[in-house]
Amino acid sequence: PSPTTFHSEADNTELHPDRIPPPMKKILYIAMDDVLADLAHAIEHVPPAVRAEYAANPDEIPGVFEGLKPMPGALDAFRQLSSAYHTYILSTAPWKNPGAWQHKLDWVQQHLGDVGYKRLIISPTKHLNKGDFLIDAHPNNGALPFEGEWIHFGTSQYPDWAAVLKRLLPA
Questions:
Q1: Quick one: pLDDT band at residue 7, thresholds 50, 70, 90?
Q2: pLDDT tens by residue, 90-113
Q3: Which of 5, 25, 120, 142 is the most exposed place for a label (fewest CB within 10 A)?
Q4: What is the DSSP-derived secondary structure letter of residue 105?
């Protein structure tokens, strides 16, 4: 083979430079809590006595992840970003609230349907996932040491989905 000829080990055929597939889309992870789904709103509506009992870990409140409302603009933004990136939902779930794992899957199925199919990753350490971007509202659970660019949702730089889309889908 000539130096400009490439081989594919998978099918043992030659790939010529003019036939090399385009580069893969970049990988984008999007957190659920307070990015796609409004967890803060749900916690605010928990009875005060229950909130007090779980003050140190409100994500451990039984059922708190059930029926979360989407953040404004989140569903449309997810669909747009899914066209431009390999997009995954990268979420943590509290160890002491196993119902949260199921409720997060239910939320994705209900609100994202086919575009969210097999796109949910639940991990307590987000920085172990390799990718180009992570949109997250919280620095904990691996967002801060994430190897790609952390888009800190809810800050002055990225206060809402319009600002995120402007960054990731430039005109």
A1: very low
A2: 999 899 999 999 999 999 999 999
A3: 5
A4: H
Cβ–Cβ under 8 Å, residues 122 and 89: no
Q: Tell me the β-bridge partners of 134.
A: 29, 150
> How would you write the chain as a 3-class SS string?
CCCCCEEECCCCEEECHHHCCCCCCCEEEECCECCCECHHHHHHCCCHHHHHHCCCCHHHCCCCCCCCCECCCHHHHHHHHHHHCEEEEEECCCCCCCHHHHHHHHHHHHHHHHHHCCCEEECCCHHHCCCCEEEECCCCCCCCCCCCEEEECCCCCCCCHHHHHHHHCCC
Beta strands in 115-169 (DSSP E): 120-122, 133-136, 149-152
- Compute the distance between CA of residue 100 and CA of residue 123 in angstroms, rounded to an integer: 13
- Predicted structure pTM score: 0.85
**Please, are residues 31 and 63 in contact by the beta-carbon 8 Å criterion?**
no
- The amino acid occupying position 63 is G
Cβ-proximal residues to 113 (8 Å cutoff; 6+ apart), any chain: none
